[in-house]
Amino acid sequence: MTPRKRLQTPVRWAIASVVLVAMIFAGLLIMVLASMTSPTTTDPQTMEPTDIGALRAAIGMLILLTLPWYRKVPLLPMVAGTISAVVLQLDPFVLAVGLTVWITRSQRRWHWVVAGAGLLVIAINAALHVIALTRWPDADYARTGQVLVVTLAALGIALVLGVSLWVRQRRSAQHAQATAHSAQQSSAELSDELTRRREREDLAREVHDTLAGRLSGLSLHVGSLEATAQRNDADHLGEALRTTRSYADQALTDLRVLLSSLREGGSAPAAPAKAPGGVADLQDLLDDAGSSGLQIHPYILLDGYSAAPEALQRAVLRITQEALTNALRHSSDRSVRARITGDEKRGITLDFRNRSGSQTSFGQGAGTGLIGIRERAELLGGTVEVSEENSEFAVRVHLPVGAPDPTP
Which residue numbers delimit the Histidine kinase/HSP90-like ATPase domain (predicted)? Predict the structure, then answer.
């Protein structure tokens, strides 16, 4: 228990004790007033309690001792208060206290039936006092007493209903506020999780599209280097070594860019993220794939591509890179037909086709390449079609020009 809570506990006990004493005092006062409405409990001549009135008062004070349980067991003061109000024909104060807590906590239908019966008992008690006053010798005293009894009974019923319903409304508002806060917190946590998931997916695509392509080309060049070394072809060996080193350096640069993007504050100054450079980047990409041994038959007809949004240019580059890497790995004749067309109105269409042997296929890989292509296209509102016919694999992607930047 914290020090603050240790300090609050005695204060709460003190307040509860004061409230309980005040309730018992009010109950005694109301019981005395209620005893003055019947000649059998109070002598009309001397205004002193009769023997029956004294006995009823003693039992009524014992009933007041049930008030300390009004919060834990509200049904106990309700039952005792009903006996006091109907059998002893005293006041319904104890009943009203328990009934207020009962209505505040009522949830089921039978709870409300019991609450309605308690309110009816208060009305019956008022009627018994009004009838008892008709036997009082002083007519003026009897009429005044009847008016007071009816007024106090109506006020008591209104007070019970008002306090209990106000507490219920307050608790309902607090519960709704807590539920709304919990829902808002859950929504924020879900939003953060979705953001982190999207960032992981973006990073996975970048790693696959950059490092996977570089390492695939490096692997092919190492194989070519091994064959050149076996042939003792010194003329081509130096060129193959330089190409292999170039691929390794490019893979290292891509790795530095990806790692720097994970640091707080974005890319490091030594390895800034390169912005797309328009058609020149496409040309470099095709030249790079051609130097890796892939025979490319390109058809590129783009209008306004260099002025297109960076997200669109980056998607075109990554999709083209992945398609060329797949063709380099799986094509039986190391060739691919690449067709990239589009303008500001129709969007950009990318179409890649290559032949494959009986042992190679897009489907025999891990499948992450096509997943990355689909994800990039969907982020921009585009579509992807993959088909196979007559041992030819085709990947067709359409990207709208007016797509928003999907960067989180």
Answer: 313-401
Dig out the tokens for 84 from the structure. 């006091």
DSSP 350: E
Find all residues with CB under 8 Å of 37, minimum gap 6, and list them.
129, 132, 133, 136, 145, 149
pTM to 2 decimal places: 0.51
Query: How many CB atoms sit inside 10 A of residue 273's CB?
Result: 13
- Neighbour tally for 223: CB within 10 Å: 11
Give the pLDDT of the chain (408 residues) as one tens digit per residue: 555 555 567 888 888 888 888 888 888 888 888 888 878 788 877 778 888 888 888 898 899 899 899 889 999 999 999 998 888 888 899 999 999 999 999 889 999 999 999 999 999 999 998 998 888 888 888 899 889 989 989 999 999 999 999 999 998 898 888 888 888 888 888 888 887 777 777 666 666 666 666 666 666 666 666 666 666 666 666 666 666 776 677 667 767 766 666 554 444 444 345 567 778 888 888 887 887 778 899 999 988 888 888 888 888 988 898 888 888 877 888 889 999 998 888 889 999 999 875 444 444 455 667 888 888 888 888 999 998 888 888 999 999 986 555 554
Beta strands in 286-368, from DSSP E residues, in sequence order: 295-302, 335-343, 347-355
